[in-house]
Amino acid sequence: MRIVSLLPSATEIVAALGLGDQLVAVTHECDYPPDLVAGKPVVTASIIPKTTSSPSLEGEEGDEPLPPNAGEIDRFVREALASGESLYRIDLDLLRDLKPDLLITQGLCDVCAVNHKAVVQAVEALGPGVQVIDLQPTTLAEVLESFRQVGAATDRAEAAEALAVLVRGRWEAVRQSAARATEHPRTLLLEWPDPPFTAGHWNPELLALANGEPAPWDTVGVASRTLHWDEIRAFAPEMIVLLACGMDAYRALDEAYALLDVPGWFDLPAVRNGECYAVDGNAFFNRPGPRLAESAEILATILHPERFTDMLPPYSVQRFDSEMLEAQESEGEEAAK
Question: For the whole model, what pTM was predicted?
Answer without folding.
Answer: 0.90
